[in-house]
Each structure stands twice: as C-alpha cells, then as structure tokens.
Amino acid sequence: MNRTLVIILLVVVGIYCLPTLLATAATIFAIVIGVFGAILGVGISLVVTLLPVIIVGYLIWWLVRDNRRNRQY
C-alpha cells in the first residue's frame, strides 16, 4: 500500500513537474547557445574588421623592410 502510494505520488509529481523541468533545461540550453553564438559573432566580426588592417600593415612593413634591405647593398 505504501509503495503504491509512493509510486502514484511520483507519477503525479512527475507529470506536473515535467514541463517545468523541460522548460528549465530548454532555458539553460538556449542561454548556452546564445552565449556561444554571441562569442562566435563577435569573433567573426573582429576577424573581418581587423584582418584587412593587419594585412595592409604587414604589406607596408614588408615593403619598408624590403626597401631598407635593397639600400644596404
């Protein structure tokens, strides 16, 4: 009798708590995916923004270095 009552209570509480547990899990999953997406977006934005500047800076440095090397000889 006691075991049957415990099983019934577990099923009833499980049925009522299942949506809450699923919503909590979905919320945590959404937050994790959102943070990952934000970090990925910021990273891609920084790469797209800074990469051309770094390439141009490297090319200018390479040209100046090459010019100095040619003048020494």
List strands and helices in order, with pairings.
Layout lengths: L1 H71 L1
Outline the structure in words.
This protein has 1 helix and no strands. It is mainly alpha-helical and 73 residues long. The N and C termini lie far apart (101 Å). The model has no long low-confidence stretch (mean pLDDT 88).
Shape: rod-shaped
Average pLDDT rating: 88
How much of the sequence lies in strands comes to under 5%
The SS-based structural class is: mainly alpha
**How many angstroms does the end-to-end distance come to?**
101 Å
As residue ranges, the low-confidence spans are none
Radius of gyration: 31 Å
Helix content: over 70%
In short:
With 73 residues, this protein is mostly helical.
Overview features:
1 helix; mainly alpha; 73 residues
